[in-house]
Amino acid sequence: MEVANARNPATKRKFDDTNGVATDVDLSLLEAIEKSQNTLEVLDLRTLKKHVLSFERRLKENIEARLKYPNQPDRFADSEVELHDELQKLKVLAGAPELYPDLVSLNVVPSIVDLLNHDNTDIAIDVVQLLQDLTDEDVLDDNDDSARVLVDALVDNSALELLVQNLHRLNDSDPDENAAVYGTLATVENLIEVKPAVAELVCEKTKLLKWLLGKIKVREFDSNKQYASEILAILLQSSTVNQKKLGQMNGVDVVLQAVAMYKSKDPKSSDEEEMLENLFDCLCCLLMPLENKERFVKAEGVELMIIIMKQKKLAYGSAIRALDFAMTKYPPACERFVDVLGLKTAFAAFMGKASTTKT
């Protein structure tokens, strides 16, 4: 609710300053501000320990209630609500990233991470939101050492594996779960930002690549498909290991199929346009290992890129870029390009007879 709407005219009064100018003063608002300042909790080690102790107490109560009444949800529902509240309170720690080493030393990270496996999906979603907040780029800025301590603890306690496992049970059609999908991808990106090695670890230890491929195969566009394409590009851009792994998973063909949706049409929004560029970034990264160039040729990728060029849609320049990656130091791709009369289309581009809207 906006402050202006919350004011009660009866509580206003006017007073004259030294110049005799009348001024409106909302005394109730000043009183509320003063009260909030007096009750503001200081974020220090003592506060951290208080939050951790309270969280562990509620977690223990929930575990005991579920074990005692496994088939009576109404008997452990209250403990679940209280556990939810404690997870929400832990978000305040994002305001003091310098305390992250203390959070780790209190050995509460394993308990938090394990809740990603909780039978109640809502609790797992709470954890996703918490991890996203704690690892947010803005939060960790200028706190590199503290950030690394937390990220190392999360990785050591199987956060990557559990995040991806939970990702597979989330349903995009549910608004809260849809938001948790986005939050999971954001957390993975945050972890990579702090510790680049996570890019290969998450592909080695989890089925994230498989999930991402499944997401970009969906025809309908949404924000999570866009984010999936971005995360996939991040995972591929600096890792030959990931490039080869995705190639072995039929990734070249899947990315080509995703790109082919735009061979004769343009994206409908700037977000969808960004996703298309992400997909081409993925394709170009995939085309760096020699074996993936071969897969590209066999999947008729050369022909698809020429079709896109002929259609002269937004992806025109990106198709030229992909062909450049495919044909660099790989004669079979060059031969295929010549055999399917790609030179005619290329000459039109280089002679300025075709529009390169996007490069």
Automatic annotation (TrEMBL):
Domain Beta-catenin-like protein 1 N-terminal: 22-128
Localization: Nucleus
A cellular component annotation (GO) from this entry: spliceosomal complex
InterPro entries tied to this protein: ARM-like, ARM-type_fold, CTNNBL1, CTNNBL1_N
Organism: Vigna mungo (Black gram)
UniProt cross-references to PANTHER family, sorted A to Z: BETA-CATENIN-LIKE PROTEIN 1 (PTHR14978:SF0), BETA-CATENIN-LIKE PROTEIN 1 NUCLEAR ASSOCIATED PROTEIN (PTHR14978)
TM region positions: none
Protein name as annotated: Beta-catenin-like protein 1 N-terminal domain-containing protein
GO biological process, one term: gene expression
Keywords noted in UniProt: Coiled coil, Nucleus, Phosphoprotein, Repeat
